[in-house]
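Customer escalation, tier 2.

The customer says the design service returned an amino acid string that "doesn't look like it belongs to this structure." They asked us to rerun it and document both sides in this ticket. The original structure tokens are below, unchanged.
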């Protein structure tokens, strides 16, 4: 017989009292803004990595108005190293919509919250429960792992049918009372005793109810994403400087890979170009082989909003993709 929602909630809340995280930066004065920023940063990024980024972000953008009024370049600069830059662009756009459409206050309605850029169903539920005390369920990666193991949910949770099944479970087992602590505990449990590798099942409050543990299948659940070969793409980038100790940079379009970030211009190689460096960067859907080639020093470049000369001494003030930043800082010996 499956565990009842009441017993499930009781065990999870007991885990929260004993082991739940209660001193994370965004848990202090948990406003909708602070919880929202943390939830977006935590998407595909671990807590220990997020904390220093979050603290620096809050110092620069302490409220939604400050973020909405900030130049997008400043926001992207604070995001360097977190990856998935579309999250930062959505964060900035969302702040502007909250200011213009909601007078600077996040909506308390789930449908309205979910309609904002970059806020999906789970993030909306987290903001409403953790910051506003509403009984809304969540389903982040950690919660998916716990539910998939406890209830032996077959299939990769990136598939819509599997996601639908997991949502039905989290809606059923999330209590109407004390929802914020319950949701926090589910995330904490998935990040600790029910971690992806080497889970500590003997310490888990759901040990006697977990079907994956009972059937000796903990390592099999959640089912992994079906393997798919990842293609490799190539790009050639131009490193061109001038006599004023400036470097030619291209601001990438706002959408697509590295959207809104500064990079080296793409080019077609010729016999006059020498190879300076080459390295690889891996995205979710493909590998990118990058070759950096030399360019002839020149001032004869027509600048525009995307193609501009920048002082080499000021590169640390710009937002770059991580692999490009690493190359430039190494090449020009910038600390």
């Amino acid at each position: 017989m499956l565990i009842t929602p009441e017993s499930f909630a009781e065990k999870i809340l007991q885990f929260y009292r004993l082991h739940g995280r209660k001193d994370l930066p965004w848990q202090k004065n948990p406003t909708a803004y602070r919880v929202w920023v943390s939830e977006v940063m935590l998407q595909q990024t671990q807590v220990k990595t997020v904390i220093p980024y979050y603290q620096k972000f809050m110092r620069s953008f302490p409220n939604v108005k400050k973020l909405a009024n900030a130049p997008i370049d400043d926001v992207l600069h604070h995001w360097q190293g977190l990856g998935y830059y579309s999250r930062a662009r959505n964060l900035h756009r969302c702040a502007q919509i909250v200011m213009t459409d909601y007078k600077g206050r996040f909506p308390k309605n789930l449908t309205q919250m979910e309609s904002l850029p970059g806020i999906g169903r789970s993030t909306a539920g987290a903001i409403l429960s953790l910051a506003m005390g509403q009984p809304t369920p969540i389903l982040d990666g950690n919660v998916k792992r716990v539910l998939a193991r406890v209830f032996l949910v077959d299939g990769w949770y990136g598939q819509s049918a599997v996601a639908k099944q997991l949502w039905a479970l989290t809606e059923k087992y999330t209590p109407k009372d004390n929802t914020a602590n319950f949701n926090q505990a589910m995330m904490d449990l998935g990040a600790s005793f029910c971690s992806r590798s080497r889970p500590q099942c003997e310490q888990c409050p759901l040990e006697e109810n977990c079907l994956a543990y009972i059937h000796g299948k903990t390592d099999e659940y959640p089912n992994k994403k079906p393997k798919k070969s990842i293609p490799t793409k190539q790009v050639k980038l131009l490193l061109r400087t001038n006599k004023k100790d400036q470097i030619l940079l291209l601001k990438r379009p706002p959408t697509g890979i590295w959207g809104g970030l500064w990079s080296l211009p793409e080019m077609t190689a010729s016999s006059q170009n020498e190879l300076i460096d080459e390295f690889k960067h891996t995205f979710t859907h493909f590998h990118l082989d990058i070759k950096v080639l030399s360019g002839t020093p020149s001032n004869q470049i027509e600048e525009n909003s995307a193609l501009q000369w920048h002082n080499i001494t000021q590169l640390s003030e710009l937002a770059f993709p991580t692999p490009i930043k690493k190359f430039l800082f190494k090449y020009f010996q910038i600390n």
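Tier 2 assessment: The sequence is consistent with the input. The domain at 31-130 is CATH 1.10.340.30 (Endonuclease III; domain 1). The chain has three domains: 31-130, 138-226, 232-331. Sent an explanation to the customer and offered a walkthrough call.
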